UniProtKB/TrEMBL annotation:
Function of the protein: Involved in the biosynthesis of the central metabolite phospho-alpha-D-ribosyl-1-pyrophosphate (PRPP) via the transfer of pyrophosphoryl group from ATP to 1-hydroxyl of ribose-5-phosphate (Rib-5-P).
UniProt family annotation: Belongs to the ribose-phosphate pyrophosphokinase family. Class I subfamily.
Pfam family, any one: Pribosyltran_N
Residue numbers annotated as active site: 194
GO BP terms: 5-phosphoribose 1-diphosphate biosynthetic process; purine nucleotide biosynthetic process; ribonucleoside monophosphate biosynthetic process
Subcellular location: Cytoplasm
Record domain Ribose-phosphate pyrophosphokinase N-terminal: where: 4-121
Assembly and oligomerization: Homohexamer.
GO cellular component, one term: ribose phosphate diphosphokinase complex
Enzyme Commission number: 2.7.6.1
Main location: cytoplasm
Protein's recorded name: Ribose-phosphate pyrophosphokinase
Organism: Candidatus Williamhamiltonella defendens
Binding of ATP, residues: 37-39, 96-97
Amino acid sequence: MPDMKLFSGNAIPKLAQRVANRLYTSLGQATVGRFSDGEVSVQINENVRGDDIFIIQSTCTPTNDNLMELVVMIDSLRRASAGRITAVIPYFGYARQDRRVRSARVPITAKVVADFLSSVGVDRVLTVDLHAEQIQGFFDVPVDNVFGSPVLIEDMLQQNLANPIVVSPDIGGVVRARAIAKLLNDTDMAIIDKRRPKANVSQVMHIIGDVAARDCILVDDMIDTAGTLCKAAEALKERGAKRVFAYATHPVFSGEAAKNIKNSLVDEVVVCDTIPLSKEIKALNNVRTLTLSGMLAEAIRRISNEESISAMFQH
């Protein structure tokens, strides 16, 4: 069996090291930096001929830099005669650009990125909670989309919640919320229906379900500016919610996210370590991070040993 080796770019070095620790190995020797003009510079400093390679790199902010690091690392390893190369992309950037709405003159950038990765010789992709699962079909190579929900649910069960109810922040998140509610001891579910009565009129939030005197668990795949999240928490508290917790896999936290969360009625925001947190977010007392290192390590082990990934999520 070929040797398994892990490599990391500069996007999520701490998560990469945690994964390596879980697998009782060390990260591969590589120099990933920049030339004086800003171009990505990569050199693999050990023999990888015939090895089973896993590159751990989220394509988060700075998105283009991290994507180029990943692509150039794949090319470097391919040219060094690596046996198989799996791109482990915990957070897949550009995933929200997955379709042309009403035939608008816009790109499908998720497809562009998929083609880019395939063109440099990646053999497989492992990612977490893709924003749209159909992105798997954009690739010409196998894609394993694993879920952060088991880690999130394990934490929820430890929180001593009072009569909890799972809340979907929009209609599009109902499937995710229903799945989590089922695993959370078949708890109840509520839905926030956002609508704008007419043009230039403020958006109204209708809550479908009874949240009075209950601990609400808002679930989503990512938190970006946190604007919608904070408005949802306010609406839930107005309807009598006792506490509001927000759980999401990907902490994008762009724009004024830190300010929005600081001034919000959200009791706690719980995210995973697929994206590094900024200093402003780390300074908030109500933001907590869980690690996906154990789950990713197990997925990598299974891929390397040709074992089933789907078996990890069979309940």
